[in-house]
């Protein structure tokens, strides 16, 4: 749990979790954060990215890690992926392109095409692959973070560190916003992310340059 207004670093996780750690990054485009790379080995790094070509690139860059070309959500099935002009901004939600005139920095979220993708849940994938525990979970999936959390099921009970990108203003149509969703999993991130809220809401509420103050990472750590 955070103490003194500071977020505990991820390298403290070995003190509260059984080794070897299993760290899962959903939306791993561009690679794992440095703080995770410093834990491997012996930590097991698993990254999810819907783009199979990006997974191949990442596998060459990080030969000791595992990359899964799979889109995750709340339930198995099919969904439309809105492939964006900036591929890292692709989302299961359609972008709100009415914002682009007032916030030009969001123009990269504009849809260039849609693709039908197969969705699975983190819980179902873990059951198939024999992954019994996830120690740390990072989510950055352009508005679909809540769906991934819901699809994690009982795996959340063992998560010691959680990092979720949260949105304060809608960038995509229909996306859940931080502080408005009512869900056990999302409440976990909300309840312990007070430091991020304090700094990010201050940024949002004062005049900011176009394209800023929309998102921030929320960190959660269990006390045990």
Describe the structure concisely for a colleague.
The chain has six helices and nine strands; from the N terminus they run βαβαββββαβαβααβ. With 224 residues, the protein is an alpha/beta fold. Residues 1-8 and 191-224 have low confidence and may be disordered.
Helix content: 10-25%
What Rg, in angstroms, do the CA atoms define? Answer: 17 Å
**How many helices in DSSP terms?**
6
- For this entry, what is the oligomeric state of its chains? single chain
Write out the strand line-up for the largest beta sheet, numbering strands in chain order: 3-2-1-7-8-9
Shape: globular
Strand fraction equals 15-25%
CATH topology of the domain at 20-74 and 121-206 and 215-221: Rossmann fold
| CATH architecture designation of the domain at 20-74 and 121-206 and 215-221 | 3-Layer(aba) Sandwich
How widely separated are the two ends? Answer: 8 Å
Q: pLDDT average, as an integer?
A: 76
Order of helices and strands: EHEHEEEEHEHEHHE
Could you name the CATH class of the domain at 20-74 and 121-206 and 215-221? Alpha Beta
Number of strands: 9
Low-confidence stretches: 1-8, 191-224
Main beta sheet strand tally, sense and closure: 6 strands, mixed
Q: Which structural class do the helices and strands define?
A: alpha/beta
């Amino acid at each position: 749990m955070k103490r003194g207004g500071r977020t505990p670093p991820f390298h403290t996780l070995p003190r509260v979790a059984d080794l070897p750690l299993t760290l899962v990054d959903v939306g791993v485009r561009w690679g794992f954060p440095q703080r995770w790379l410093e834990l491997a080995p012996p930590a097991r790094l698993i990254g999810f990215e819907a783009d199979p070509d990006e997974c191949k690139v990442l596998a060459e860059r990080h030969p000791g890690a595992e990359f899964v070309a799979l889109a995750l959500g709340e339930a198995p099935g099919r969904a439309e992926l809105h492939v964006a002009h900036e591929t890292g901004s692709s989302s299961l939600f359609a972008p709100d392109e009415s914002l682009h005139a007032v916030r030009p920095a969001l123009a990269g979220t504009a849809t260039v095409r849609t693709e039908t993708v197969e969705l699975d849940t983190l819980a179902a994938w873990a059951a198939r692959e024999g992954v019994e525990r996830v120690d740390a979970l990072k989510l950055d999936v352009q508005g679909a973070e809540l769906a991934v959390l819901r699809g994690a099921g009982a795996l959340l009970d063992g998560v010691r560190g959680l990092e979720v990108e949260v949105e304060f203003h809608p960038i995509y149509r229909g996306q859940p916003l931080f502080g408005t969703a009512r869900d056990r999993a999302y409440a976990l991130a909300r309840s312990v992310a007070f430091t991020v809220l304090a700094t990010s809401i201050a940024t949002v509420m004062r005049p900011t340059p176009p394209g800023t103050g929309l998102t921030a990472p929320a960190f959660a750590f269990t006390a045990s």
